[in-house]
Design goal:
The complex is a heterodimer of chains A (about 525) and B (about 325). Chain A has about 525 residues and is of the alpha+beta class. Chain A has 16 helices and 22 strands. Helix content of chain A is about 25%, strand content about 20%. Classes of the chains: A alpha+beta (about 525), B mainly alpha (about 325). Chain B: This is ABC transporter permease.
Chain lengths: ~525, ~325
């Protein structure tokens, strides 16, 4: 994959793979073998082991540090250090009488120990909130910390979080990221703490060595709380080693020579090579990331639904998919199908060049001398932006330009990078823009297309859509949320402020000897489920 | 040559470094992108979080102010903090300097030991099949892309033969001398190949010039044998033009072998530079580039001193 999801972008999404929680029982007891070290190749440098500070994926961190909850492969939260996921039904969530605030009670798992042997208690949870919200702590993510008013810890195994608002996305933030050990960190400076090198967690593996630019070595934590259904003490592996290999060619060479056994991000263009390696198999894992083409509504012609519809009809997703090695998958909704919220009956605009031309003809856009259509003096000639330097995006851009040309619409590449790109994207410095977003397991879509949404550089505004988002994002009732989700998916598909094109997949190359491995929609969180993995 | 000369040269380097720092700082800030770009794909990172990080690193200040703050800190020996890792720039550089010096040092040593004999041999057999063969070999050596050669070596020695580890600085849990040696062989070979090729050309042309000189004829006339003439009369003078090139290459070793270190996952300065470029880590980049500049300036001073040592007629007052 050529895009580099930040830890936050994916962890935000944190679909922690708790597949194994569900899958564990499905494996026969005799099959698992204890022991063996797994060597993992990462193409990025691990900058810090502190889950709240890193700008990158948290692969290594996820094997070491645990949160109260974790999302499973279907974007559903399951308990980790908590004993159950708080809901309205089980009384874990209580909405105040005015309906403006809420109180969430977590019951903590008894008998959990930190890697240094100290007991894990409610004080650690409270400390985590205090440490993260501390303005002196430079964190990449403080999500969910400002919505917490106070935390009560009536006893060692009970945490009561008092929110100053209704936050249906509470599970995708703070305490799911990871809990910090109060007994080790209280009173220290988290920005410079040695914890950032060798974190102490409650996870199945403990960090024994972190050598910058080289590797992170983890070893089995013998007092890990979790047991397999057959009573085996987890984890099965003796340890996981994360090696940082920045060059993908070298990484593939290391797979060939057996120096690494698992690569969670094989570039699309190297997939064919990997498939030819003896003893290595390739798994396609879904990702909560999708590609889309968005319109700037400041252009009068783009504010015309007929033009947007024509463009949607003119795009042949199969070519886009081919251009990206055949790995992405076509979609019609920004809600990636792995979510429960995905509405299968969302209307679709099929690929149909003739229909597109007819739409434009009927709407009065007539081809000029050069074949480019125009109406009332406005030529359908657009600037088209992708993030410069992203080969996959630039390729897709060329495909789309050609497809638009076929219906008499001109698009000219105007690509930018860095701050310039960001500024253009958020302030609408484009006519058409192609890119990708990634969401959390508790996605919030109003930021993209809600009126005044933080990421709505398109100047798009639709009261019906705002209302659907409002329902979706301000209720804790799952049925009502699902209904609202179907509603906004339909509005998006019909009014087309965005054309959802393709999803991404993670190409995971792994040794055939590694068993119990379940891919997860987020690269990072493949490792949250590492305790049941074993090597044959 | 005197102690005063060295002091004067070092003193002269200060305004030079100041100028370099100003240019580097300007270029870095003119380049598109910034340290907060790693969050651009992520709608969930709030503007407040970005603002806080910007404030913490002074990125919210105007660029000239940022420069003067940086300069002030630099003068008192504070190189700032890496935006990517949050650790002091000096600590990060110190960690990576060792592997780079080992790799670069070995590559330079190998290059010297191979390039000098090749250059001398080539010049002394000028026009022969051997000379032509070496010429062809050096041009091949200069032209072969580093990453391609690296890949070939990795496939041969790591995948096919299984003799050497394909990448890394040491095996996990090992790190003995032999283990490190096995890791350094391929990157050092790749790194030295291009230098051998270019240095041997410089030495050859230097030798060709010198071999036409009267004193060389005189040495032969006095009955000195060829090895003696080449090594004791000619080589010393032939090295003078080559010294500049060699000195500059010594300097660049400190700034790291970017491609080689990336391909071989060598945890050195070159790779740190790549990572920092990638993350637009301004403090780290400034630290690395200033260190590289100092290295090149020092190498040039050493080259001047080497001239005088090689040719007593050259004197610096």
């Amino acid at each position: 994959m050529t895009f580099k999801p930040t830890r936050r972008s994916v962890l935000q999404g944190m679909l922690a793979g708790s597949a194994a929680f569900a899958v564990m029982g499905a494996f026969p007891a005799f099959a698992q073998q204890k022991g063996g070290k797994l060597t993992v190749g990462l193409t990025y440098e691990i900058d810090t082991m502190n889950v709240y500070s890193t700008g990158f994926l948290g692969d290594a961190q996820a094997a070491v540090v645990e949160g109260l909850l974790a999302p499973d492969p279907h974007a559903k939260y399951v308990p980790v250090l908590a004993t159950e996921v708080p809901t309205l039904e089980n009384g874990g969530i209580v909405v105040s009488e005015g309906g403006k605030t809420m109180k969430i009670t977590y019951k903590l798992r008894p008998g959990v120990k930190w890697h240094d042997g100290a007991p894990f208690t409610s004080a650690d949870v409270k400390y985590t909130w205090e440490a993260v919200k501390d303005p002196a702590f430079i964190a990449e993510s403080k999500d969910g910390s400002s919505e917490v008013e106070s935390i009560d810890t009536p006893d060692d195994l009970t945490v009561v979080v008092n929110y100053n608002t209704i936050l249906p996305t509470f599970a995708s933030t703070l305490f799911t990221f990871g809990i910090l050990p109060k007994h080790l960190l209280e009173g220290t400076d988290l920005n410079t703490s040695p914890y950032n090198e060798t974190p102490v967690g409650t996870g199945p593996f403990k960090v024994t060595e972190f050598v910058r630019g080289q590797y992170v070595v983890t070893e089995r934590f013998d007092d890990y709380w979790r047991k397999a259904d057959n009573g085996d003490q987890l984890p099965y592996l003796d340890g996981i080693i994360f090696k940082m290999i920045p060059d993908t060619n070298t990484l593939i060479t290391q797979l060939k020579s057996g120096e690494v056994q698992l690569v969670v991000q094989t570039p699309y263009n190297q997939a064919a090579q990997v498939e030819g390696i003896d003893g290595i198999e390739m798994i396609k894992g879904p990702l909560l990331s999708w590609q889309h083409l968005d319109f700037n509504f400041k252009r009068p012609s783009l504010a015309d639904i007929n033009v947007r519809k024509a463009i949607a009809s003119a795009i042949d997703r199969s070519i886009l998919i081919k251009a990206q090695g055949g790995f992405p998958e076509a979609i019609k909704s920004p809600v990636v199908p792995v979510f429960d919220f995905y509405a299968a009956d969302t209307p679709e605009t099929p690929y149909d060049v003739e229909a597109a031309k007819k739409l434009l003809d009927d709407a009065g856009y007539k081809p000029g001398g050069d074949g480019i259509r125009e109406k009332d003096g406005e030529r359908l000639s657009y600037t088209f932006m992708v993030q410069a330097g992203r080969a996959d995006d630039e390729l897709a851009q060329q495909v789309i330009i050609a497809q638009l040309k076929a219906i008499g619409i001109e698009a000219t590449a105007d690509n930018k990078t860095g701050v310039a790109y960001r500024e253009a994207r958020y302030k609408g410095g484009y006519d058409l823009i192609y890119g990708r977003w990634i969401t959390s397991a508790d996605p919030v879509y109003s930021v993209f297309w809600g009126t005044g949404g933080a990421n709505n550089g398109q100047s798009y505004s639709n009261p019906a859509l705002d209302a659907a988002f409002g329902k979706f994002e301000n209720t804790l009732d799952p049925a009502a949320r699902k209904e609202a989700a179907a509603e906004f998916q339909k509005i998006l598909a019909e009014d087309l402020p965005t054309i959802s094109l393709t999803t991404n997949v993670a190409l995971i190359a792994k040794t055939k000897k590694l068993k119990n491995f379940v891919p997860n929609p987020t690269n990072m969180t493949n490792f949250i489920n590492s305790s049941p993995w074993y090597l044959e | 040559m005197s102690f005063g000369f060295i002091l004067r040269r070092l003193g002269g380097a200060i305004p030079l470094l100041l100028g370099i720092s100003l240019i580097l700082f300007t270029i870095i800030h003119l380049a598109p992108g910034g340290p907060l770009d790693m969050y651009t794909d992520n709608p969930a990172v709030s503007q407040e979080a970005l603002d806080q990080i910007a404030r913490a690193y002074g990125l919210d200040q105007p660029v000239p102010v940022q420069y003067f703050l940086w300069l002030k800190a630099m003068v008192v020996g504070d190189w700032g903090y890496s935006i990517r890792t949050g650790r002091p720039v000096l600590t990060e550089i110190a960690l990576r300097l060792g592997p780079t010096l080992q790799l670069g040092g070995l590559a330079l040593l190998v290059s010297l030991c191979v390039a000098i004999p090749l250059g001398v041999l080539s010049a002394s057999r000028r026009g022969s099949a051997l000379d032509n063969g070496l010429t062809l070999a050096s041009f091949t050596g200069i032209s072969v892309p580093v990453f391609w050669l690296a890949l070939l070596l990795q496939l041969l020695f790591s995948v096919q033969l299984g003799w050497l580890p394909s990448a890394g600085y040491q095996s996990i849990g090992d790190g003995s001398f032999l283990d490190r040696l096995s890791h350094i062989v391929m990157p050092a070979a790749v790194l030295s190949l291009a230098t051998i090729a270019s240095w041997s050309r410089f030495i050859r042309s230097g030798m060709v010039d010198v071999l036409n000189q009267d004193y060389v004829r005189t040495a032969y006339a006095k009955g000195r044998g060829e090895p003696g003439v080449l090594l004791f009369h000619a080589l010393r003078n032939a090295m003078i033009p080559a010294v500049t090139v060699i000195a500059v290459d010594f300097g660049t070793v400190i700034s790291g072998a970017v491609i080689t270190e990336t391909v071989f996952a060598w945890p050195g300065i070159g790779r740190l530079f790549m990572e920092s470029m990638d993350g637009r880590d301004y403090p780290m980049l400034m630290g690395l580039m200033m260190m590289g500049s100092v290295g090149i300036i020092l190498a040039n001073i050493v080259a001047d001193l080497a001239y005088a040592a090689l040719d007593p007629r050259i004197r610096y007052g």
